[in-house]
Amino acid sequence: MSAYKRNNDSSEVSHIEDGPATKLLAMEEDKMKSLFNQKIWDPKFQNDLEETISKSEPYNWGSITELVDDDLLRSVRKEIESEIHFTLKETDIYKVNQSGDLANLSGLDWADLSRLPNMYKLRQILYSEPYRKFIAKITNSKYLSGSKMDMSVNTYTKGCHLLTHDDVIGSRRVSFILYLPEPDRKWKEHYGGGLRLFPSVANNIPYTDPCAKLVPQFNQIAFFKVKPGYSFHDVEEVKVDKHRLSIQGWYHIPQEGEEGYIPGEEEAWVNNNNSTLSQLEFNLLQEFEYPKDERKLVVKEPSQEEQLTKLAEDLTKLSSEEIKDLNKYIDEEHLTKEGLQVLQKNFLENSSLSIENFLNKETSELLLKLIKYRELNEICPMTVEENKKPWETAKPPHKWRFLYLDENEFNEESQNERAELDSKLYDLSQFLQSFVFKKFIATITCLVPLTQSVIVRRFRPGNDFTLADKLQLNKNFDNLMECILEGTLSLSAFDDWEGGNVGGYQIYMLNEEDNGDDQAVVHDDNGESVLINKSASWNSFNLVLRDENVLEFIKYVSWGAKGSRWDIKMLWDVKDTGDDDEE
Amino acid sequence: MAKRPLGLSKSNKAKRAKRDQDKAGAGTSNVSSANNSKEGTPQLTLEVEEGEDPEDELVQLRAMWKRYFHEERQSEPLLNGVINECNGLLIKSDQDGTELDTEYLAIFAFALVESIYTEDGYHPEMHELFERALEVLDRGFKQNPKDKLLGLTYANLCFTRIITEYMSQLKPDSNESEKQWAIETLLKDAMSKFSIYNEDMKMTYAVLTELNTLLELVGHFNSSNAVAEDGLDSDVEEDVEDLDEGEEEDDDKIGSIAETHPLYPLRLRSRDHFEWGREQLVELYKALPTDDDIKFKREVATMIGELYLKKAAAPTRKFLRLRYDNDEEEEETDTAMCQEAQQGAIKAIASALEYLRDAQDPDSTDSWVAVAEAYIDLGNVCDNESCEQDNAYGEAEKLLRKANIAAHGKYDEVLSKFVQDQQAE
Q1: 3-state secondary structure (DSSP) of residue A251
Q2: For the residues of A44-65, what is the DSSP string, one character each?
Q3: Which domains does chain A have, with CATH numbers?
């Protein structure tokens, strides 16, 4: 799996994907056309819309209000409410209520038709020839398949969202979303749930913030041409207790036997899209990624490595001077011989460790005061434009988005100009990069850290996340373990993180790529793929020895969270000092 | 030399393999099976008050109850533990012919009532559980009719019973007079037996919260207006306006249920009942020790503030109607009534503000917004363009702006609507 190409569409699990057109009930063309708003058959309307779409930004997209017969859509809504059961599903990229029953609609029999006759009728007209030709014309999309129907029903309730993706899967040519929030009520912008479109800075690199947004209304359809590497969009989090019901669908490349079918066209399209997965392109894309995934070699001298190795083998080797230095930041209970023994034992047993009350009282209290002050009294910058140095925005947004402290901005001259919180976080980061801290790490893990990367991060409510990503092992040095030691010091004030409702939690889970579904599902049936689920919290330090088979992500922080998730993420490439007995 | 640490997924795999191996081995010998079952028994460590005998059965029961009620109220096993413990002690005392402490009996009855709320709704045998709890309480009242904890427990039983056993069965067209009488009697009995139990203020508060829930349910019975979960959402008001199309909501009007409906008397007197509940809460609040849990104090103060705002709602509506929608002919006779309504509303809102300010939490924007809302209510009932109105609206705007920054724009919509309204006036 690549960080940049994922089968990450929320509707993949439950959708209608019907077979031959012969299954359809015949509907007279006039009757079918009459079920649409008549304006769409007007050539002037079509031409105007075609022009609007061709000039639209950031890519070819458009919308039509009052698309279909109002009575029909109200009946569809009622059917959905009474016949379809929704299940809340949450992964790294979305949180959405997905329809359970609708997947069974493929291969409909008459009994099923009696349950969802209006839904069936709606699907029939949306995939009818005149309407497909209309969509093909206004989007300049050549021909669209009428036999390969692909629809799903989702409802976004408070807290639901779908993060940035480009919809490129298989033979999709045009994406559409028909909205069915409560009829007779205006869906207001501050409810959230908008369809947001992202411009691209380069192929497959969306810009951090969206440039266009559609606030959906009942019986409005939005659509866009699927353009690999460009058609990036997301669904803004729903912020109120309302249901944003929608039918999502795709028009595919014509299938054999259909008008416009070109042998090999679909295969070529799919192959071309898959080639964007290639490592070559992946490396090119890394140029646009910030902060850089760079773990610099910091233990360069053999004598330093030797010192760390000794500590990894014998925790009593930590000198009283070193303990004193560590105690400037770390609470003393973790620095006694007994404290160190407990930490080491836990780490060796579990390959992970969670240390509560990690920082000492003085540091913890000061940071808590400063972070709370910033959260409560200073406007939180939500866009790249609003953001100010020394903070930078992590990008691109189909991998992650958060603010991080740019340590290059700190030097002796600038130190006095910096806000107290930024300076204190910088100082803490420097401590975490110090040699004495590496000694502490070696002592409690029995591993020798040789490289390091330390980043201070702020995940803003309603904005930030990291998607599940595979481990990138360091190939630059020999004799490293095929694992990375990861540390996360969570510094999230406020108390609403437990339970996970507002996101912001950190997940370590098994990579189950081989089952064909590369979404990182948080709540799986057997509950065994999630290895660690750690809520954001105040002053807790997590250490994990992560191997290649483990994914990690920080769940999108809900707009409803009281404040940001703050943390410091640390990575070390390590050398092993233990014996060979893996049992 | 230390053991080599494994990567997380390998470590997890190894643990699972070991667990599976242990499971497979567990059935092969009686000894290991017995050991496993012993190891598997959850051990509960309870903290007892200083100076108390940890071997004393009542001390143990009290500790277990406190652990359940104050720390793990969702824990069914803990609640079942309390009930089982009580049952055993009751049987033992019957056999020994000894008298049980009333505190123990109250805990038993309270626990039985607690068990009526289950994860799936209400316990199918709730009637039997209520009757059993009543038997236990009767036994206690015989020993001490004025026992405060027993009285509190009895009140809780009645409030819960109205909600679960009676209201859950009612339909909009129900008209059983027997039920009407039973519900009224239960509420009356509950109020007469209720008293603040100083030994456990949180328990007292929980009972008053149950009453509040009951009164809210009565108020919303057969009503399409859902209670807004989100507090200050400008759209809740708008939506209600859209639905009612200008029809004035008035709690003097009991439009949606018939006089013969079992809830009619409760709804008719709901203002008095809310007032009674509020008075008890005020007493409780005054009795709280100054060094008590600040979070709890704020919770109580918030509830009192909200109840004062509820009290202000009717005179506010009356004032606004008389002041701004009045016919000229009626003007003279209404002046006094208008002033009276205005004074009533201002007094209640001022009281609400007193408590809501007490409840302000420097870390919770919701608590600041609650104060802002009360200031807006106050401004609405002050004379138009008066200094008092300007001050009230000014305070509200200041708080909303502050909350909006802290809550990353959560109140943008509310704030801009409020500012627009000010400018329009």
Answers
A1: strand
A2: HHHHHHHHHHHH-SSSSEEEES
A3: 11-20+28-285 (2.60.120.620), 294-576 (3.60.130.20)
Residue A476, CA distances (Å) to A283, A309, A480, A573 in order: 15, 21, 9, 11
- Per the structure, the count of domains in chain B is 1
At B100, give phi and psi (nearest 5°). Answer: -95, 150
Average pLDDT (B390-402) is: 96
What sections of A70-206 are H helices per DSSP? 70-83, 110-115, 117-126, 129-139
Whether the CB-CB separation of B3 and A581 falls below 8 Å is answered with yes
CB A411 within 8 A of CB A423: no
| CB-closest option in A462, A510, A550 to B408 | A462
B43 domain residue, yes or no: no
Within 8 A of A481 by CB-CB distance, chain B residues are: 7
Q: Which of residues 529-558 of A touch B (CB under 8 A)?
A: 531-532, 544-550
Is residue B342, in this structure, part of any structural domain at all? yes
Q: What are phi and psi of B307, to 5 degrees?
A: -70, -35
Which one of A182, A344, A350, A558 makes the best mutation probe of the B interface by having the most chain B beta carbons within 10 Å? A350
Q: Is the dihedral of CA B81, B86, B91, B92 positive or negative?
A: positive
Residue B118 burial by Cβ neighbours in a 10 Å radius (0-12, 13-18, 19+):
exposed
Taking the C-alpha atoms of residue B136 and residue B113, their distance in angstroms, rounded to an integer, is 11
Which position has the higher pLDDT, B223 or B384? Answer: B384
Residues B22-46: pLDDT tens digits? 766 554 333 333 333 344 445 677 7
- Chain length of chain B: 425
Residues A55/A88, Cβ–Cβ less than 8 Å: no
Distance CA B379, CA B383 (A): 8
What does the pLDDT look like over A372-397, one tens digit per residue? 999 999 999 999 999 999 999 999 99
Tell me which residue range forms the domain holding B398. 288-323+333-425
Look at residues A522, A495, A407 and name the one whose alpha carbon lies nearest to residue A457: A407
Q: How many CB pairs under 8 A join A and B?
A: 115
Rounded alpha-carbon distances, angstroms, from residue A257 to A260, A265, A319:
9, 13, 79
Q: Which of A569, A525, A535 is nearest to A87 (CA)?
A: A525
Tokens 């109020």 correspond to B191
- The rounded distance, in Å, linking the Cα atoms of A135 and A322 is 70
Cα A252 to Cα A21: distance, rounded to the nearest angstrom: 14
Rounded Cα distance between B99 and B109, Å, is 16
Task: Write the residue in A190, A312, A482 that is nearest to B413 by C-beta.
Answer: A190
A150: helix, strand or coil: strand
Tokens for B266, please give them.
């409760």
- Report pLDDT for A468: 93
A474/B contact by beta carbon, under 8 A: no
**Is residue B296, in this structure, part of any structural domain at all?**
yes
Identify whether B361 is part of a domain.
yes
- Rounded-to-integer distance, Cα A417 and Cα A85, Å: 57
Amino acid identity for residue A103 in this structure: A
**What are the tens digits of pLDDT across the range A449-464?**
999 999 999 999 999 9
Alpha helix positions (H), B162-293 = 177-193, 201-220, 234-244, 264-268, 270-287
| CATH number of residue B315's parent domain | 1.25.40
Which range is least confidently modeled, B30-44, B92-106, B163-177, B246-260? B30-44
Q: How far is CA A541 from CA A167, A285, A295, A390, B7, in A?
A: 37, 32, 20, 24, 18
Residue B170: both structure tokens together = 């009612």
Write down the H helix ranges in B221-262.
Answer: 234-244
Q: What is the mean pLDDT of residues A331-350?
A: 96
Backbone phi, then psi, for A448, in 5-degree steps? -110, 110
Encoded tokens for A401: 């988005």
Q: What is the pTM of this model?
A: 0.87
Tokens of B194: 């209720």
